[in-house]
Structure formats: C-alpha cells, structure tokens
From TrEMBL:
Keywords assigned: FAD, Flavoprotein, Monooxygenase, Oxidoreductase, Purine metabolism
Protein name: FAD-dependent urate hydroxylase
NCBIfam families xref list: urate_HpxO
Keyword presence, Flavoprotein: yes
PANTHER family assigned to the protein according to its UniProt record, in alphabetical order: GERANYLGERANYL DIPHOSPHATE REDUCTASE (PTHR13789:SF318), MONOOXYGENASE (PTHR13789)
Domain FAD-binding: 3-338
Pathways involved: Purine metabolism; urate degradation
Gene3D superfamilies xref list: FAD/NAD(P)-binding domain (3.50.50.60)
Gene giving rise to this polypeptide: hpxO
Homology family: Belongs to the FAD-dependent urate hydroxylase family.
Reactions performed catalytically: urate + NADH + O2 + H(+) = 5-hydroxyisourate + NAD(+) + H2O
Keyword Flavoprotein annotated: yes
EC number: 1.14.13.113
Organism of origin: Kineosporia mesophila
Cofactor(s) listed in the protein's UniProt record: FAD
C-alpha cells in the first residue's frame, strides 16, 4: 500500500519506520521547513523503550539515554531531601530500563531510521478528501498526494483531527507554564545519576540526566495563559518566580542559557474515542493530547505505532476495518492516561492547595513504593507487555 503520514514527530516518524518494515510505500509530510523539536528532552519510560526496541532501535536508544538510577524529592524552599529511592524496581517489573533522552537526538534517530529523503518538509496540510479506495491530501502550496490510507500525526493542533471529528477540538489550559532546556550536569543541583525534583507552593523544578554529561531541566510555573514573554528574559522571569528557593534551584537558574530555554504553555484535550474516518486515522498528540505530568505523551504515541503496525499486519478485511480495530484497541487506554496526567497536574500545581500540602507530607515518608507503583501502573496494559 501507499501510506501518507502527516507530521514527522515521534509518532509520525516511528509509524513510518514500522509501516516501511511491513513493506509499504510510506511518505511523511511535515509543515516545518526543518527539524526543530519542541521541548528539550523527553522521558522514554519502559513501555516507550520497548517500542523503540521493537523497531530495531534499542542500541541507539540506550546510547542516547541518561543513566537514571535514583529518584528524589526535595523541599523547594530549604533543599531538604524529602525522600530518595532507587528506580531499579521499575526495570525489574517492566523488564526494561527507562531513559531520559534529548528530544533532538531522539527525533534525529527516528528520522534517519525512516529516511530523510522520504520526508517532505514545508508541506502544510490544507484539506483531505476520500474516494472509494483512496485518500488525497492537498497542501497549502497547491501540491497533492494520494494514497491508500492517511495517518494524521500532526500534533496537538492537528488539522487531521478536525477532519476526522468534523470540528475543532478545544484545548484546555492546564494552569501552568513549563520552562525547559539542557545544561551541563552540576552536582550542586542534583546527583548525576538521579531524577531530582524540588517542590513547593504548587511549583516544581526538576533535573534528569541525559547522555553527554547533561541535565534535562524543567521549571513548572503558575502563570496565566497568554502572558507576553521574551526568550532573553528567561533567567530573570525564573529568578522572580523562584526567589527564596533552595541553593540548588538558584544554581540551576544561574547555569541555564536563556536563548536555549523553551517556554511552553501546557494544554490537554478531553479524551475522545473517534480516531478514524474511513481511510484516515489519528496518532499521537493528534489523538490524545496530554499534559507532561506522567511522562507518557511520547510513549503513548509509540504505543499507537505498535498497535497500528499490528492491525495492518494481521487483519485482512480491508483498510477501514484495520483502522477501526486500531482505534478500538487504543482509545480507552490513551484516554485514561490523559486523565491520569490531568489529575497528577492538579495535585502537583495546587489546584486544591490542601491536596498538594497532603502530597508534600506523604513525600516526607515515601520509600519509593507508592511513586513506583504509580509509574508502573501507567505502563501496565501497553501493547508489548
């Protein structure tokens, strides 16, 4: 079959790799003119790593990943360690170590594995039409492409989603802004083998080790939607929001480069269960836009890829039937993860201040059991076990 994929992000590129492996002719169309990943890094938990292993990218993924052996929460104001525990139980229970990975490195790996010569950059989706046996997409530059099926992996602001649902889907502001980037590892901020998170007043600051002796960092800031912002002001903005916080936080602010620090307003979309219209199917953020609070956004897109590959390899009643089976296998689990991330975001960011204070108190007696149970629960039910 000839397969068209809209979007060259994690979901689109991984789907391209998987479907090429089945022998299909695949082309990816991407609206940006060059690869510029949004966000500095991504947590690839064990379920996502298993998907990358399945695609033949296990060794490359391990080489890109940081060594994250421990997890710790610290009081954001005093720097006191609230809890610290090993992450070995995750690997033991899931059969695979998770990896924090620089998003640019992961994206480059996926694009190279798919084939850069088959990615058409600078193609913005304008419209989709279907005829019996085919689907045609028209781009803003007037060019067109026709295939046997179309996968819309065009992200949180997906135009394919509007076509499938027949209407735009409203995005919900989660109430906070995420500043993120990469810095050299500094043990005054946190150990080199540890995911360290400072929490206080409904905000958090976190560092995770990635390859190359670097930390992926992020600051969650309670700000209203739509504030004016200049990238050059990142350090000053964060210094204001985190005035009086622990020395490790101040050191991180001093170390970061404002011009490579991203600022992302965080949204999600209420789960929905229509992902398919004829020969068109949604994948990744287009189907299940989530907040990053449980680190399952990219992993969920990789799970979509595995299920899409599976139904196209094993069902024989036609494209429409296969895509419906893909939809039926994924919408409930993906939707549950969106809502789990939303609940986690509300507690982390003090939607109910009493609930957040209670969480802080729980962290002071945490031995890792409850945190690891929650992380593993988010991965149970993934297509690769």
């Amino acid at each position: 079959m000839r397969i068209i994929i809209i979007g060259a992000g994690i979901g689109g590129a991984s789907a391209g790799i998987a479907l090429q492996r089945l022998g299909h002719e695949v082309e990816i169309y991407e609206q940006v003119t060059e690869n510029k990943p949004v966000g500095a890094a991504i947590s690839v938990w064990s379920n996502g790593v298993k998907a990358l292993n399945h695609l033949g990218l296990g060794a490359q993924t391990a080489a890109l990943g940081g060594r994250m052996d421990h997890m710790s929460y610290r009081d954001g104001l005093t720097g006191e360690t609230m809890c610290r525990f090993p992450l070995d139980p995750i690997t033991e229970q899931m059969g695979q170590r998770p990896y924090p990975v620089a998003r640019a490195d992961l994206q480059a790996m996926l694009m190279d594995a798919f084939g850069l010569d088959r990615i058409r950059f600078g193609r913005r989706l304008e419209s989709i039409s279907q005829e019996p046996g085919s689907v045609t997409v028209t781009f803003a530059d007037g060019s067109r492409a026709t295939g046997d099926l179309l996968i819309g992996a065009d992200g949180a602001k997906s135009r394919t989603r509007a076509y499938v649902l027949g209407t735009e889907r409203e995005r919900r502001y989660a109430g906070y802004v995420n500043f993120n980037g990469l810095v050299d590892i500094d043990t005054q901020v946190g150990p080199a083998d540890q995911w360290t998170t400072y929490v206080a007043d409904g905000q958090r600051v976190s560092v995770m080790p990635i390859a190359g002796g670097r930390f992926y960092f992020f600051f969650d800031v309670l700000e209203p939607q739509g504030l004016a912002y200049r990238r050059a002001d990142a350090r000053e903005v964060l210094a204001q929001h985190f005035a009086g916080w622990a020395p490790g936080v101040q050191k991180l602010i001093a170390n970061l480069d404002p011009m490579t620090t991203n600022r992302v307003e965080v949204f999600d979309i209420d789960p929905f269960h229509t992902w398919v219209k004829g020969r068109v199917a949604l994948l990744g953020d287009a189907a299940h836009n989530t907040t990053p609070d449980i680190g399952q956004g990219g992993c969920s897109a990789l799970e979509d890829t595995i299920m899409l590959e599976r139904v196209l390899a094993t069902t024989t009643l036609g494209v429409e039937d296969s895509l419906r089976r893909y939809q039926d296998s994924r919408t409930q689990r993906a939707g549950e993860l969106v809502l789990t991330a939303r609940r986690r975001a509300d507690v982390t960011h003090a939607k109910d201040p009493e609930a957040t204070r209670a969480w802080y108190e729980e962290l002071r007696t945490e031995d890792g059991t409850n945190v690891i149970r929650g992380i593993v629960a988010n991965m149970v039910g993934n297509p690769l076990g």
